[in-house]
Amino acid sequence: MLNFEFFKLSELAEVIVSGVDKKSKPGQKEVRLCNFTDVYYNWAITSSLFDSFMVATAKDNEIEALSIKKGYVALTKDSETRYDIGISTYIADEFDDVVLGYHCALIKPNEKVLCGKYLNCLLQTQYARTYFANNAKGSGQRYSLTQDCLNDMKIPLPMKNGRVDMDYQEKVGNLFSSIDRKIEINQQINRNLEELARLIYDYWFVQFDFPDKNGKPYKSSGGKMVWNETLKREIPNGWKNGVLIDIANITMGQSPAGSSYNEDGNGTIFYQGSTDFGIRFPSVRQYTTEPTRFAKKGDILMSVRAPVGATNIAAIDCCIGRGLCAMNSRQNSTSLLYFMIEIFKDRFANKNAAGTTFGAITKDELFSLPVVIAPQEIVDGFERQAKPVFEKQMKIGEEINELTNLRNFLLPLLMNGQASLRG
């Protein structure tokens, strides 16, 4: 059994709360922002994420204090729920002019006594989650971790011969970093497959160049197009307009009693909204002992509250709350339905950008979203091309889940000394 001693975080690291917002202001230097969602959704921040960081500006002193560097740790500091604060990530690569955005805090470990990778592992444990939940300030609309709360957090460090065991910290950190790197590679493969499937969808259902009876691209080869007054566009002859409920079975979520929620694995997996959405599947965080509305494995989960239109796939039968709906295809093509919903998400985003915020979408609004309906033989042809890609994504997504579960199983054992690493 390892020996651990506890130290205040302020004794081991410098903690800086960020106030850098997303605006670009005259006279300030242009930077990239590592924002709340970047921290929330990634175990580690790697160079592969650079292009996804938004562009903003910051003052010179903010850049000096809040630039992310390899070895640092960032965490979420403010959010609407207790569950979303204290989520950490490790800065795994070097960056130039990338600054941590507001609602987050940057932790700069003293490398003589604290390894950033080890700290990130610790902050992912139930010990840390409980500390943050119990010490969060606020109620109702917003919760926050104060500077004092972060500084005063007790950090257990492995000790050897009266000294901090940096070797053990490195081993633990390296193990989980290697698991995370594999997860990241799988996520990138799935993103590439997503782009491939989307290109096929765009070719068939946006450009209307699906193969005609001679195997040639329909519209480009002179296929007949007809004006559809309802859709206000030309569509291929023989196609028709409809609404989403015509092509999808839709279940609107309903939240169980709050007293039934737990994180101990009791009852049915429960997703309240899109908070737990990942690249392909949502991560399991909550359960309910009083499930109400259900989604089946393979159903498309869509957020019906801000951000409206965010999608994931149910990896297992689950209960869904009022922030989600579940859909499956009436045309026997999950891949087609998935990409049709993706197009709706783009429309919602465009309206948000124009200043018309979609805080939520009602059942009637969702059911009546306009769609173009292709003949079944066209749908079947698309499914034959898209399904192998979709199934490959599902398989890789399941591997990501397995790696994540392995990581979550090993994490508390190695962080409290119940298990140890050899070599």
Task: Give a quick precis of the structure.
The chain has 423 residues and is an alpha+beta fold.
- The residue fraction in helices comes out at 25-40%
Overall outline = elongated
The order of strands across the largest sheet is 2-10-6-8-4
CATH homology group of the largest domain = DNA methylase specificity domains
- As for the CATH topology of the largest domain, it is Adenine-n6-DNA-methyltransferase TaqI, Chain A, domain 2
* Tally of structural domains: 2
CATH class of the largest domain: Alpha Beta
Number of helices: 11
What assembly state would you assign to the polypeptide chains in this entry? single chain
% residues in beta strands = 15-25%
Poorly predicted segments = 352-357
Record field, number of beta strands: 26
State the major sheet: 5 strands, mixed
